[in-house]
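Please fill in the sequence for the structure shown.

STRUCTURE ENCODING:
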């Protein structure tokens, strides 16, 4: 596993964004792990987060894109932080763009925030985590209506690797099949288990045998097929 992925997993745990125990998800499933990206709240955290995203984007898409699109609302700070980090790490000035929930009819008019989109732009969409694909369903037509652009792919921080509510494929797999662009994550839950199982993080074991067994049982029931 790449070093930046190991560091990112530790960073999620240290920031208390990724927790282990017993959690009831919106879907009603009882999960032994939970991620809340809304807990990245400080400047230093966003600075580090942008760098991890930038490294993953560079790994999967190289410099073959022009714009980072972050769906409102959580995608807005992600796109800004990552655009800054990408320039620092790789020396390429990436534009950022987000959608507004409601179009603005004065000043900087329109549905977009940040850069406009123009014909020929290559776009990478950036999100925290995708569980249902709803935000892509909302933003995909907005992006495509702005100009003759190419969506290179979607990047999220964590792939939960679990099947959706209607199919046996993961949300990322469903999006890739439906829209035809690549979907990637900084890390997967498989990476998380490999990195943390019976290994110290913050002076304690976050995934012990009990948690590992609970995760295994969860994936027997909810694990995605053809993830």
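FILLED IN BY: designer on duty
SEQUENCE:
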């Amino acid at each position: 596993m790449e070093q930046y992925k190991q560091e990112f997993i530790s960073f999620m745990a240290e920031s208390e964004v990724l927790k282990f125990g017993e959690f009831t998800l919106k879907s009603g499933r009882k999960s032994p792990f939970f991620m809340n990206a809304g807990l990245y709240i400080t400047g230093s955290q966003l600075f580090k987060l942008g760098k991890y995203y930038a490294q993953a984007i560079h790994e999967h898409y190289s410099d073959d894109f022009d714009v980072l699109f972050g769906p409102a609302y959580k995608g807005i700070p992600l796109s800004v932080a990552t655009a800054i980090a990408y320039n620092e790490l790789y020396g390429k000035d990436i534009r950022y763009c987000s959608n507004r929930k409601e179009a603005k009819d004065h000043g900087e008019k329109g549905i977009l925030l940040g850069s406009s989109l123009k014909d020929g732009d290559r776009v990478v969409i950036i999100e925290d985590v995708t569980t249902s694909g709803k935000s892509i369903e909302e933003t995909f037509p907005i992006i495509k209506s702005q100009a003759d652009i190419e969506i290179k792919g979607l990047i999220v921080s964590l792939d939960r690797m679990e099947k959706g509510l209607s199919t046996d494929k993961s949300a990322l797999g469903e999006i890739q099949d439906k829209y035809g662009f690549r979907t990637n994550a900084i890390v997967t839950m498989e990476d998380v288990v490999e990195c943390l199982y019976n290994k110290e993080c913050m002076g304690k074991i976050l995934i012990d045998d009990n948690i590992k067994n609970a995760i295994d049982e969860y994936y027997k029931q909810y694990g995605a097929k053809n993830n």
